[in-house]
Design brief:
This protein is of the alpha+beta class and 412 residues long. The protein is built from 14 helices and 14 strands. The chain has three domains: 1-64, no CATH class; 65-305, no CATH class; 350-411, no CATH class. The structure holds zinc ion. This is Competence protein CoiA-like family.
């Protein structure tokens, strides 16, 4: 039975893994004075020292109470759940735990515990469980993730997320990601399978919702950004993801917001910006829920987004203007070619006649077929296209009906 962390005079003391002979004796003496109590059954604890376990607490006569055995089993299951995580996982969880413990000390409405200790009977454990007034949060850290990760892990993460929601917790996920799939030229982001499910919805995301809602009234919105939207008319849902990076001396949270879009694989989202970085302690500020953002930066980014949008609109309008200009020039060239069209005398074909009639009397496909079958193949003769054109000019003919009248008369 290992009891590493115990509450003594409201201080949390973690026994060092290995320690000197003197220190061991000292701890044992303190234990004999009934200084250490089991936090669950309040029984007096003794201190033991072993080669493998190091220094640890134990109930007397190794008779662990039911509660502490339950916690012990929960801890083992928690360790199994985290088998795939890298070494940094525990470091990150401990940093978050310490950060929140400091907050809990100055704010009695905040209660922090490790997930497996807070609810040992849970099916899945968050790394940390936090209560703020009447709201409960689950904080989980996932390490060792890349966008091409297998879908089994994604499903496992989604199951955990849904389970926490079922238990009445508000899940918060921190992702240690090696790379992000961002296509800047398309303002798009390809999400890892689980990311859409574990993304958060904060007050700042709601502020972004309102900005996007306003701008989406312009049906060209996604075109400006060269973004291949699949859900133009669906609800506007801005969400956020929290990536963890460690720099030389501190932990950084990267706040990445996106507009939810493609909800089948590959999950694609409209990128609102390239994200921004805040310190861990800033992310964990409690202000009617976890802040997880810097509202000043978000405000700046929204203003910047509007500026970019105006710029993109201008560029788009300029592009349209240029395209239109090119189209006009092209039409003019076509027109000139048509009017100056003069088939050579000796090679005047039915094709030449068609082009000339199309231009002069707006000959339709249907009329052309009638001309061919009713006249060219009978009274006129298929090789006499030039004759027909001469008749058109001679009678100053301006419609197909006029032409037909002339040809009919000629037949008689
Ligand atoms: Zn106990």
């Amino acid at each position: 039975m290992r009891e590493a962390i115990h509450v003594i005079d409201e201080e949390i003391v973690q026994l060092p893994y290995s320690t000197s002979r003197d220190a061991v004796e000292n701890y044992k003496k303190l234990a004999n004075k009934s200084l250490y109590k089991c936090p669950y059954c309040e029984a007096k604890l003794i201190v033991k020292f072993g080669d493998i376990k190091g220094l640890y607490f134990s109930h007397q006569h190794s008779e662990a109470c039911e509660e502490s055995r339950k916690i012990d089993r929960a801890e083992k299951r928690y360790e199994k759940q985290n088998e795939r995580e890298t070494k940094i996982h525990k470091v990150l969880v401990d940093i978050i735990y310490d950060e929140l413990s400091i907050k809990a000390k100055i704010n009695p409405n905040v209660i922090v515990n490790y997930g497996y200790k807070a609810n040992p009977s849970y099916k899945y454990y968050p790394d940390i469980s936090v209560k703020v007034n009447d709201r409960a949060y689950s904080i989980s850290v996932i390490t060792n993730v890349s966008p091409s990760q297998d879908s089994k892990l994604a499903q496992d993460i989604i199951n955990r997320h849904e389970y926490f929601v079922e238990q009445g917790l508000e899940p918060i996920w921190f992702i240690e990601m090696k790379e992000q799939s961002i296509e800047l030229e398309k303002n798009s982001m390809v999400l890892w399978d689980a990311e859409l499910a574990i993304s958060a919805k904060t007050k700042e995301d709601e502020r972004w919702d309102r900005l996007i809602e306003e701008n989406m009234k312009d049906s060209m919105f996604f075109k400006y950004f060269n973004y291949p939207s699949t859900t133009l008319n669906k609800e506007i849902d801005v969400r956020s993801l929290y990536y963890i990076f460690s720099t030389e001396d501190k932990l950084i949270v990267k706040v990445q917001r996106f507009l939810k879009d493609r909800i089948v694989r590959p999950y694609r989202a409209f990128l609102l910006n390239r994200g921004y970085e805040i310190s861990f302690s800033e992310a964990l500020v409690i202000d009617d829920g976890f802040k997880l953002s810097n509202p000043d930066i978000d405000l700046q980014l929204r203003n910047h987004f509007n500026e970019i949008l105006i710029q993109k609109k201008k560029e788009h309008e300029e592009q349209l203007r240029q395209e239109n200009e090119r189209k006009q020039i092209h039409l003019k060239e076509l027109e000139e070619r048509r009017t100056s069209f003069t088939p050579s005398e000796e090679n005047f074909t039915y094709s030449d006649l068609k082009v000339l009639l199309k231009h002069r009397i707006g000959l339709t496909q249907k009329e052309q077929m009638e001309l061919w079958s009713k006249y060219m193949l009978s009274s006129v003769g298929p090789k006499n296209s030039k004759l027909v054109w001469e008749l058109v000019l001679e009678h100053d003919c301006h419609s197909f009906n006029e032409l037909k009248a002339i040809l009919d008369k000629r037949k008689i």
